[in-house]
Amino acid sequence: MITRDHWPAIGLGISQIVGYGTLMYAYAILLPHMAEDLGLSLSGVFGILSLGLFFGGMLSPVAGKLVDRFGGRWVMTLGSVVAAGSVMSLGHVQTTTGLLIAILLAEGAGMFVLYNVAFASVARLDLSLPPQTSISIITLFGGVASTIFWPLTLALYTAMGWQSTWTVLGIALLLICTPIHFFTLRGAETLPGSPPKSPRPNWPELTGAMRRQGMLWMVISFVCSGYIMGAVMTLWVTNVQDIGHSAAMAALAGAVIGPFKTVGRFFEMLVSRNMYPRVTYALSLGLMLAGFAVLLVVGFTLPGLMLAAALYGMGDGIKTIARGTLPLALFGAKGYGTRLGWISFVQMGINASAPFAFAWITQSFGGWWSFMVMALCLCGAIATFRLIPDPRLEAAATPDQSPAL
């Protein structure tokens, strides 16, 4: 049953559809056409996007710290205003420098309105729902961003060109996201400087040396599992064509990924009351790796391709939830926004190079080998995940220190 406490997560979920659609997915459709008109190569224009992603990662800790200090209402409201203006400015660029400045502004502002800040913002609200449930609801909506905005952006570009398309997308971001952030996040919050509610009262945190070890291996695992995201977004069609499918079939299979992200998140939401985030993350990695295994073995067939896309989509959808809930479970609620910001800074700083690295592999060795290296990245994520200490086991192993009677 939907209660009043569900509305902040539902509102943020809707804003994530528009936010990711305008600030991430629209680039795949519009940047190649912008490159032609601005006299840039495809690698050059995506190189500018990589710089924007890196710059956004640098600002992510700032956004998280502001949410920890002041709550998310004004951070996300003002962030959506700046992001909307930056998206609209992309429709007016005429030089490479102008494009660079507009993308830097857009991706920098994006760090104040996308998932990490949304997770931290809803965790600060004084709600009856545990943060894990709210995070699951937010990502449930966000999974359809690509399914909606790839065809929508293409239709707008076909009708009016990239200049007007950016303007329309920016106006949509302003009119939809700004009021959502202002009104849905106006509820009571925990006091500045005090932690929001923990995900579960019986989930112990890591302590001492285990805490540092857990952070190290968790971040490395997040980097390995996240490194392939940008490559899949930009090279899926190219690689699938390279293993023997038409562009139409490759695009169709790519469209399957988005809805199955939502399927995975809906499944996680149904079982999240009994699922520890460490298990959630392991499930996501297993599904993603299974998708690549199917793709590498029988991906040359249409059923194999579709099954691979579905498995990968489910795993990637669940991984987004785990990216927010695992740090909360392992390290607690205090400083949660700042912690997510620093994790995002490291992850985005490294992962910005992924489109170029995998494009080189595709050009040099072919799409099959590019997918193989993506699968190896997931193997690395699984290997490092296994090194993350489980605080439940640590707590169980701690002897009772109470004095004997």
TrEMBL record:
It comes from Marivita lacus. PROSITE patterns: MFS (PS50850). It comes from the Bacteria. PANTHER family: MONOCARBOXYLATE MFS PERMEASE, MONOCARBOXYLATE TRANSPORTER. Keywords: Membrane, Transmembrane, Transmembrane helix. The keyword Translocase does not apply. This is MFS transporter. Pfam families: MFS_1. The chain crosses the membrane at residues 7-28, 40-62, 74-93, 99-123, 135-160, 166-185, 215-237, 243-260, 281-303, 309-333, 340-361, 367-388. Gene3D superfamilies: MFS general substrate transporter like domains (1.20.1250.20). InterPro entries: MFS (IPR011701), MFS_dom (IPR020846), MFS_trans_sf (IPR036259), Proton-linked_MCT (IPR050327). The keyword Transit peptide does not apply. Residues 1-392 form the Major facilitator superfamily (MFS) profile domain.
